[in-house]
Amino acid sequence: MKKCLLLGNGGREAVLAEQISKGYSLYVIMPYANPSIVEQVEKSNGKYIIGNPFDKELVKKFIEAEKIEACVVSQDNLLQEGLIDLAKELGLKTFGPTSQGAKLEWSKTYALDVVKKLAPEMIIRNEKISTLEELEKAIENYKDDSFVVKPEGLTGGKGVKVGGIHFKGKEEGFNYAKECLEEAGKVIIQDKVEGREFTVMALTDGKNIVVTPITFDYPYRFDEDKGPGTGGMGCLSFANGLLPFLEQEDVDKCSKLIQDTIQYVNKDNLEFTGVIYGGFFKCKQGIKFIEFNARFGDPEAINVLNSLETPFTEVMENIWKQKLSEENCKFKKNYTFTVYVVSSDYAIKKAEPCEFTLNTKDILKKDAKIYFASTKQIENNRYCSVGTSRLFAIHTCGATLEEAKEKAYTAMKNNVDDKLDYRNDIGEIYEH
Ligand code: GLY
Fold first, then answer.
1. Using the 8-state DSSP alphabet, how is residue 82 labeled?
2. 17, 81, 181, 281: which is deepest, by most CB within 10 A?
3. What total of structural domains would you count in the chain?
4. Is residue 390 in a domain?
């Protein structure tokens, strides 16, 4: 069996591990033993090492010693650091953009410049700030805090702050923007718009794109979209591939922008293959662009890869042959539902390390899946957190949203340790 290297360790990598191991022997470098990834490595007769996936010497040695043929990377900072570039240099088939291709994610000002060229009507009015004077002037122009502060670089999906929600009053917004400016030398101030956010992800071979079912993410920490922003507390997709507030023509506009962006980024060299993530807003003024990510979203990857009908390894092969099409990359027509479980202080204060019990057998019996993220196994059904991020995701699918939701929350009841926390309202569609 062919050997495929996966770098990284989150819930997104856990679902990628499951998909890759269906057709390849899975090889992984991860900083700790993620139980879901370990299971897939063992099942596929692969191998993992606990080490730093940013360590290019380590990665190179592992690839050469194990004669690995393919490499998948879907983590923002690993892409920015050029781990796909390294795999390409070593002659591997790759899924993921080069560092230059991933600039769409690691430079928010670059992404805005690209979209301004390709679809100016999708741009929300913004100012790219590089001095304190510019910042003062930009914020002075607002009557109140109806603006958004967007840091220039990578923030793990948690850096964008919206006036009235994440900060209150102009001064608090100004102070946050100043912090971002000091950190990166640039910051973006953008008008706040009211509407609904959605994600359009597309698989791409660098030339063709195939749009996945559209997903709806739950970035806020608490029920009813209260509290701070997080990496995502849950996610849904619908059987028709749309969302209740979207028409096909809305998605077509986003797909066109994504297709044009891929062509633009690849005009001189093949910099971008894998998956591109477009964050958009549907508002009174139409469809507006929020951001690009150069990777699968997390948890979005869990929904979308579970609704893939074509084996993911076949999709990868079609990407390598530059023959990706809707005929060879098909999705099931079902509802998908994911809830992330976190420690009670996640995103509130520096999370203390925690140990917890998880009745995995009973959850699986109830037709739900578990994808571990920042978690290690201690023994049997005892686990502990690693770092401060999300712990594990519960995923279900169904013929209706109600069925998928009911299955997930029933599986979690009495099986998830009381000291842990999750949102109980995944499935509601809020507007801001
Ligand atoms: N869930 C949002 C992200 O992965 O960026």
1. T
2. 17
3. 3
4. yes
